[in-house]
Structures are given as structure tokens and as C-alpha cells.
Amino acid sequence: MSDDRKVELERLRDELKERLERYRAHRQHLGGPVDRDMEDQPLETRDDEVVASLEAEAEDELAQVRHALARIREGRGEICERCGEVIDAGRLAAVSHATLCRECRGD
Ligand SMILES: [Zn+2]
């Protein structure tokens, strides 16, 4: 059970790393920061902003996945890091990178 979750998290981590590389390549392709005075490329600017927000999201998720993997390595992967209670299996199955129980998370 715990091993499955570790495998799932490692898969997710690799996927996120790949996704981040694609976002970064995309940004470099656009040639760095967009000049805000240039009004002739509104679509590219928008696209760039979307990619930047997707990139930030993927970075957050990757950090959370790495954090969860570190907790699993310490043998505390199923323990809520705030209250110390066991996180229920249903929640871990639904959110494999969870490190807080339902109550601490507030959902
Ligand atoms: Zn808790």
C-alpha cells in the first residue's frame, strides 16, 4: 500500500519535472521577458502568462510531492505532519501527495 503510493509519487515527480522542462523551454523560445510596450503580440503575451502560471503550479506540486516522498522515506508518510494522527487511506488514495489529515487540511 505504502509502496504503491511511493511508486505513484515518483511517477508524478518525474512527470512534473518533464512538464517544468517543457514550460522552461517554451519560455526561452519566446526570448525571455516580454516587452510590455509591444502591443502587437497580445496572444503570445497571454500564452506566456498562462505558461508562467502553469509553471508556478507545477513547481508547487513538485515541491509537495518531494516533501511527501521525504516523509515516506522517514517512515512517516501516513502521519499528519501537523497533529500526528494517521491520515486515512481514502484521502491518501485520492491525494497521493497529502501530508496533512483531512481535518488539518480543512477539507
Ligand atoms: Zn492532522
Structure overview:
Helices cover 65% and strands 0% of the residues. With 107 residues, it is mostly helical. It has one domain. Helix 1 packs antiparallel against helix 2. The protein is elongated, with a radius of gyration of 18 Å. The structure holds zinc ion. The site of zinc ion (ZN) has 8 residues, from helix 4. It comes from Halomonas organivorans. GO terms for molecular function: zinc ion binding.
Helix/strand layout:
Elements: H1 2-29, H2 42-73, H3 89-94, H4 102-105
Helix pairs in contact: 1-2
The chain binds zinc ion.
Zinc ion is lined by residues 80, 82-83, 85, 100-101, 103-104.
Beta-strand share of residues: under 5%
Rg on CA atoms, Å: 18 Å
The number of helical segments is 4
Quote the average pLDDT.
Answer: 87
Q: In total, how many beta strands?
A: 0
Spell the H/E element sequence.
HHHH
Using the alpha-carbon principal axes, give the shape: elongated
| Bound small molecules, deduplicated | zinc ion
Number of spatially distinct domains:
1
Gap from first CA to last CA: 23 Å
Ranges where pLDDT stays below 50 over 5 or more residues in a row are none
Measured as a percent range, the helix fraction is 55-70%
By helix and strand content, what is the structural category?
Answer: mainly alpha
* Major sheet: none
In short:
With about 110 residues, the chain is an all-alpha fold.
Question: What tags apply to this protein structure?
Answer:
single chain; 107 residues; mainly alpha; 65% helix; elongated; zinc ion binding
